[in-house]
Design brief:
Length: 197
């Protein structure tokens, strides 16, 4: 990213710390990410997909959800995160079908449902890319404590978006149970999913 990366990384770490503090998180649960104590119920959201079908982030019995907010023009954090998910899914083997990997864009202006889903699926065909209207996007970001802002600087790809970079793990009951700061090894997510499955 450009020179704002360092500043935004600092802001993102502060926001992450605030989410941790407000949620009453800890590191002593036996899980490898930052655990949310007690697990926090998160609302369900609906998105219309490229084929016209509706995707709901509601709880699914036996299927935890791994969730990340990003955008398709992201030069670094987003592709790195999705590449880590690919490693996790491969390492889970046959158990991978019990996990939903969901990528939600913070840039619905450019990332249409078609664009974001194609982006997610280039990492793995089972990954889900979602784009909602601005109100749905804002409400979902608020529910997860995610911040994003359009940068005034531009790149060859157009404007950039600075955004929170943590990954969220939501259990099969629709509760936020673990957060992973960017840079946490993908093996931490893998180990925690093995515990939940």
């Amino acid at each position: 990213m450009e020179r704002k990366t360092g500043t935004w990384a600092s802001i993102s770490r502060v926001l992450f710390a605030l989410v941790v503090a407000v949620s009453g998180c800890g590191l002593d649960s036996g899980l490898h990410g930052v655990t949310v104590k007690p697990p926090r119920e998160v609302p369900s959201f609906e998105f219309t997909r490229a084929d016209g079908s509706v995707y709901r982030t509601a709880a699914e019995a036996g299927r935890p959800m791994v969730l990340f907010f990003g955008y398709t023009h992201c030069p670094d954090v987003c592709p790195t995160t999705l590449q880590d998910w690919k490693r996790v899914k491969q390492a889970l083997g046959k158990n991978a079908s019990g996990v939903r990997f969901v990528f939600v864009t913070v840039d619905p202006e450019r990332d249409t449902p078609e664009v974001v889903d194609k982006y997610a699926k280039q990492f793995d065909p089972s990954f889900v890319g979602l784009s909602g209207d601005s109100l749905t996007t804002a409400r979902m970001q608020e529910a997860f404590g995610v911040a994003s802002i359009r940068d005034v600087t531009t790149s060859a790809a157009g404007y950039l978006m600075s955004h929170s970079s943590q990954v969220f793990l939501v259990d099969e009951r629709g509760r936020l149970v673990v957060l992973y700061a960017f840079g946490t090894g993908w093996d931490a997510l893998l180990a925690d999913l093995k515990q939940l499955l």
